[in-house]
Amino acid sequence: MSSIRFEQVTRIFERRGGSYKALEPLSLTIVDQEFIAIVGPSGCGKTTLLRMAAGLDFPTSGRVFVGDKPILGPGPDRAVVFQQFALFPWKTVCENIAFGLRCRRAPKEQRQELVAKFVRLMGLEDHEDSYPHQLSGGMQQRVGIARAYAVEPGVLLMDEPFGALDAQTRAEMQEELIRVRRVQPCTVLFITHSVEEAAYLADRVVVMTGRPGRIREVVDVASIRAAEGWNRSPIEEVMGLESFVRIRSQLWRLLRHNKPISEPPVLPDAGLLGLREAS
Amino acid sequence: MNSASTVRRLVASGTSLGLSTIGLLAFFGVWFLASASGLAPKRVLPSPSDVAVTLYQISVHPFAGYTLEQHLTSSLERFLAGFALAAAAGIPTGLLMGWYAPFRYAISPFFDSLRFVAPLAWVPFAALWFGTGFGGPILIIFSGAFAPCVINSFRGARLVDQHLTEAARTLGAGHLRLMAQVLLPGALPSIVAGLRISAGLAWQSLIGAELIVVSSGVGYLIVQGQGDVAPAVVMAGMAAIGFVGIAIDTILLMIQRGILRTWQGAVQ
Lengths: 279, 268
What we know:
The complex is a heterodimer.
Chain A: E1 4-15, E2 18-30, E3 35-39, H1 46-54, E4 61-66, E5 69-70, E6 78-81, H2 93-103, H3 108-121, H4 137-150, E7 155-159, H5 167-183, E8 187-192, H6 195-201, E9 204-209, E10 214-220, H7 222-228, H8 235-238, H9 242-256
Parallel strand pairs in A: 3-8, 3-9, 6-7, 7-8
Antiparallel strand pairs in A: 1-2, 1-4, 4-5, 9-10
Helix pairs in contact in A: 2-3, 2-4, 3-4, 6-9
Chain B: H1 3-12, H2 16-36, H3 48-60, H4 68-99, H5 101-114, H6 123-159, H7 162-170, H8 175-212, H9 218-227, H10 231-267
């Protein structure tokens, strides 16, 4: 069972001059094979959640589980796709994809077989011996996804994976992700800034509010997607469908009703200063 | 038209080589004039031509048991052994310090105080523990060359993109693999810069060591020249040290440039 469960998780960062509360007690379960997207403003703690699931960060209180096991560090059951791609610049495409398999001491034949499989699946056939810097951003992230998939994780943790790509490449990659996941099902925790992206990809969209981070609402998309047959149409058509636009607006409204983070904090003694109208 | 702007223009128009030549000529000119005019007596300062002739003579006829070439060879052997040892021990130590904080805290007080102890201060123990043949000098070279290897590897490891180390960890890399396949290549430019500094210090320390503990090598040649009151031999030895030093640094500089070119292409 590749589920991820956050149980009353909080996170307080110690900073110079005090501590900073990144997460309020938060609980969330991502069930096996589910695709969850988290949207929210910068600093709402969404990346912190992903890092906890990856075992790269730990909650101040509460617990995080993968299946029934508490997460004590990075593990073979979870793989991460980074916004910055984080490919090893000194390794070729194939060596990058094979890295996790080598760490697991997979026999050579199995390694070659899996690398070839994901090279094919991600459309990297002509670039096997290229180095990352020779590839476009979109191709680099294909390598990033192939590298994560190659270790056959139950859970894929994607931290704004398409955030550094141009709009066209981004749409292409979103379609690719849906296609690849059909071939190779897994549980996904997907962090994004983009409401469209979240609505298009996810079964459920978690809308978070910032400072301290907490869940505002969880919006179910899977049932609408299935009913309206989104997966049968190309992305540009889906984004024009009335059902899609409705979900998108709903998500936008939820985000907009957050206090904008640029708004200065209301002074506690505002009344005494005669600033009531300003707030 | 002041002279500073003239110098700038000369440099800008690609005449830095010309300026270097002028500098060298001026140096040798002053030296030549000083000894030719009798201002500096020959037993105090040999003339450039004396040194050149002596350089040739000791290359052909043995002095202090060996020819200059043989002295240089035995010096270079010790240098290479000590330098290789310092790099082999210093690079992993530095990477480990950069990667694993407890190790850094455990080792840094010891390391920070030890690196101020001049290599020559090790001479008594070098001779006591490893003798005066090969082992003793190597300890002295090692003590000079180790610190820059460690410090630069450490700095390089600290500068490796955190996303790369996290990617490696989530893919299941252990400490050893992470150091060898992520930190080492990531820190390479810094490591090579450290090796250049380290090589210079190693070569310096070696000559110091040879002045005291051994019976061959360029340092030994200089000591014997001093004993024989042959200032031209002493200076010929010094010139040889300088030339070989430049040669070592040039080789490492070329390696460094090659690595930087590849590396910057890959990392941008």
